[in-house]
Amino acid sequence: MNTHQKVPMQRLEKFLITFFGLLILSLLIIFAVSPSIYTTTFSPGLAATERYPLPVILFLVALVAFVSILMYGVAHHWRWLFWLILVAFTGSVIQIPVEILQLTGVLANPNPVWYGLFRAGVGVMEIGFAVWMIQTYRHHGVWAMERKNVRG
Q: How many angstroms separate the Cα of 146 from the Cα of each of 14, 139, 150?
């Protein structure tokens, strides 16, 4: 791999790992500040009898473990993970209009306004990453590494 390809790979890798790290941090902060968001999402319609129910804690632990595996996969340039992240982040394009409709009252929103704005911001960042990943792929291949020659 030449230096021209290494710089975009390192930049994309660092930004994705930082994004996932901040995602974990935000999950934990939201859980500490407003655990009712997770409770109503996890079991809608039921009143929370305790502030930090065990099923929600287990779900949060599984989610943190999953995002940690994503961080590891990005650091080790798993090719299939590139495509998985790209598809997931591209799918965030639907999140922006949904959040706008919830904030304007057209769709029901059981969560606080700040959480809707936060989710919309994360959606915009994910779309930005998707565009960046597409551009990186088009110019340098998956994870900005050399394109593998499939011919024997």
A: 19, 10, 12
Q: How far apart are CA 112 and CA 138, in angstroms?
A: 40
pLDDT tens profile 48-98: 566 777 888 898 999 999 999 999 999 999 999 999 999 999 999 999 999
| Residues belonging to the chain | 152
Amino acid at 13: E
Amino acid at the residue 49: T
Q: Which two tokens stand for residue 143?
A: 């994870």
Q: Which of 149, 119, 145 is nearest to 2 (CA)?
A: 145
Global pTM value: 0.82
Q: What are 117-145's pLDDT values in tens digits?
A: 999 999 999 999 999 999 999 888 888 77
**Of the candidates 42, 63, 65, which has an alpha carbon nearest to the alpha carbon of residue 52?**
42
How many Å separate Cα 68 from the centre of its chain? 12
Tokens of 126: 């994910």
Alpha-carbon gap, residue 126 to 148, rounded angstroms: 27
| Backbone region of residue 83 per phi and psi (left: phi > 0; alpha: psi in -120 to 50; beta: other values) | alpha
For the chain, helix (H) and strand (E) counts, in that order, are 6, 0
